Structure formats: C-alpha cells, structure tokens
Amino acid sequence: MPTFRRPAGVPFRDRFGTPLVGAAPRLLLLGSGEIGREVALEAIRLGAEVVAVDRYANAPAMAVAHRHHVRDMTDGAGLRALVEREAPDVIVPEIEQIATDELVRLEDDGWTVVPRARAVRDTMDRERVRRLASRTARVRTSAFAVVGDPAAAARAAREIGYPCLFKSMMSSSGHGMTRVDGPSGVAAAYRAASGEGRVVSPRIMIEEFVPFDHEVTMLALRHYDPTGTVRTTVMAPIGHARPGTVYCESWQPHRLPPPVVRSLRAVATAVTDLLGGVGIFGVECFVRGTEVYFSEVSPRPHDTGFVTLGSQWNSEFALHARAILGLPYQGPEPAVPAAARVLLARGSGWAPSVGGLTAALADRRVRVHLFGKPEAHPSRRLGIVVARAATVTAARRAVRRAATLIEATIRIEYPTPSREAPPTGTDPTGSHPPGLPDRHRKAPKGDGPTEDRPSAPPPSARSPGPNHPDRRAGTT
To answer: Which fold has domain 7-124?
Structure first.
C-alpha cells in the first residue's frame, strides 16, 4: 500500500458507504448558487451526502441536496453551530460571504475545509492574495495599491497612472470593478468599489490597467493520483469576454502559442501549490505578447468554467467533486471546441420565467441550464447556454444566438422596484412574494423540528464503522 499524504484532512478514498443510512462522506456546501448546484450534483453522482446552505431560501443547490439550511454564513457562531450540528466530513465554501476566520478556527479544531481554510481566507482578500502571488510565488502581477478613503484613492490612481482599475477587496464576476480613465472618474469608481462588492468596505484595490491581448482562466486541479500522491493538473486555457466588467461568455480551448500556454500553466501551478489543499482553482491571467500576468485566483470552480460542461468529459464541477472526496484522477482533460454564454435578467422581482426554448434548442449543439433562482435583479445570472461545435467560433455563434432568443423572453412574474425592497407581505423565509401558490411557500428542509439532531464531534473524534453512530446521534 502506498503512503498517502493527506492535505487539509481529505483522505484518499476507494470505497463509499450509502448516504443518509450509511457511511457516505458528507459535504456541507456553504453557498448554494449555480456553481454550488453543479458541485452538489456531481458529489451526489459519486455517492456523497450533501447538505446545502445559503442566506436565502430555494437557492439552486437546495433543490438537489439531501438537506438544506438558510443561514447567515458571515455569523461565525452560527456557522460553528451548524457545523457541529451536521458533522460534515468536508466543509466546502462556494461563495465569498463566509466568516473565514471562523473557518480557520474550525479547521484548527479538526474539521476539514477544502481546499484549506487559510487558502479560502487568503483568496477572499485581493491584497493578501496579490502579495502572496508576487512575493512568495514570484509570479508577474500588475502594479497595485490598497487604499481606504477617496483622497488616498486619488493619490494612488495618479501614481499608478491612467487608465487604472478600481476593484472591491472581496468580489467576483466583475462586481464593483470600474475602469477609470482620468481624475474625474475617481469618486464614482471609489463608491462602486467600496459599496458594490460582496462585502461593503472602505478598503479597495487600485490596479494598473494592462493592455492585454488575451484574458484567460486556467483551471488548476490539486488532486490525488492513483498512487495516493497529490498532484497539480492544469486544464486547457479558457478565453472569456466581459462587456463592461461582468462575465458574459467563455470558450475552450483558447488557442495560444505553446510557450505562452506553458507559462500560464507554470503560473497557475505556482499559485495553487502555494495555497495547498485539494480541489479546483480558477486562476485568472492576462497575456500581453508573450508575457503572462497573474490577476486573481478563486479556490473553487470558476464561473468562466461553465464552458467545461460542453468542452470536457469531466467538467470543472466533476473534477472538484472528485478531488474533495479524495478520489484519484489522471489528466489533463482533452478539450473539444465549446462555448458558454450567460442568461442575464434585466429587471427586478420574484419568480422569473424564460421562454424561447423551442427555438434555442432547435440547434442540437445547444444545451440550456436554467438555475431556478427565486429572485431576479439586473444582470443576475438566471441560466447559461452551452454549445459544442467543430470550431470555437461556431460554438460562440451558437450560444449567442440561443442566448439572444431566450433573453428576449425573460419575464418577471412579480416585479419589484428594487432587490433591496421585497414586496410587503413576503413570507418569513424571505423567498416569495404575496400571492404565490401555497406549493411554493413550504418551509425549507433542514430547519424544521423533525430535522434537528444533536451536535456531533469533529471527524477526528468519530468512531469508525459502517453505521457511523456519531453521525446519527452525536455520540462516539
């Protein structure tokens, strides 16, 4: 038998039990949006038990998980109580709005967080991850500064030079990011960066604008190989487009000269090996000529990686599930030409619906994934269109056509003037407007009295065995 190295507490596995009644590994999914849903589906296909958590009811992953909870995950004490209640084998952060310091304490107490709690905390903070990349991993980055007020922002922008980018310290998918072309744009950009990120904060990052030729995502998977050794495998480059600052379209493979691809793989490997643990990372880079610049890294499946639902036999979600469950992998994945394009809402309100599906799906190369989100607001992702074709160009044309057909039909059944102001009379879960049929107003699973279970010790204190009595009754 090989000697296994166990990063972040994830053991090498070769056998699973049965969910709910046996010893299947239990995942606590912190974040239940569209990415969380795909991870949940892939984990369930592999035989895992999944508990989904989010701040709002009826989030996409809740529809497929074995149980779910509505919780404020920025509340450290509440997060710990939930972990002790569910006693997961693996805690899987899938969004930024989490009490990361509490995740570190949980990991120190013996709970397993993937990829590692400190990697999750570090990548949530643009300054911390940028300094780790430039100073420790020693990869090239653009010039940057971190400031805490508008006056400091104006000085930093002047020193870095125009144009420059103002970014929220904690954000994703381009939210809170603004390109600033001169002093007149500083005040508005500072307000956006400090107020429109995942967390409102006066601290923002100002970054040199790199006039890049390509913007790409490298999916780097840290995983066990069949001998039990941890490896890092980097997939083919993913190109993506962001009209404005929000992710809109991605494609794979993105063709680049072999030396540039080697440099991209080297940057992705250096950064993710530094962060450690197991699971998939989305490493964003800029390419200018033959130079590669590191931009940022996400310690989870990346939104641009939705294209892998069409381009790879094992999507980024399948790879992530396999790695965090301790199953072996040999790669990288061969990529066939494919593209993905998001379906964006234009208005605010509850119970969005879409049409145009007959026309969109008339193209047999196209697949449509609808996320089932209960609420819409402008530019919120409601779904995604994926297509394979003989070439990337043809795949991009196919998803654009299908997305245009569907987006033109999006209807908000219960419009509201603002996502911050739900209609009066909304039910206590905060997930439905008045007048919705009763079948949509059931209390969320996992929070009723029949679902309450005593707390259980961390996995290190559990008794082994097929029945796992500690998981059912909180005893060892």
So the answer is: Rossmann fold (3.40.50)
Compute the distance between CA of residue 159 and CA of residue 147 in angstroms, rounded to an integer: 13
Topology classification of domain 143-208: Dna Ligase; domain 1 (3.30.1490)
pLDDT tens for each residue of 138-156: 999 999 999 999 999 999 9
Each domain of the chain, given as residue ranges in start order, spans 7-124, 143-208, 214-415
Active site residues: 172, 174, 284, 296, 303-304, 381
User: Into which CATH architecture does domain 214-415 fall?
Assistant: 2-Layer Sandwich (3.30)
Distances (CA, A) of 18 to 44, 196, 323, 377: 11, 43, 19, 39
User: What DSSP assignment string belongs to 144-200?
Assistant: EEEESSHHHHHHHHHHH-SSEEEEESS--TTTT-EEE-SGGGHHHHHHHHHHSSSS-
What is the per-residue pLDDT across 265-322, written as a single tens digit (0 to 9) for each? 999 999 999 999 999 999 999 999 999 999 999 999 999 999 999 999 999 999 999 9
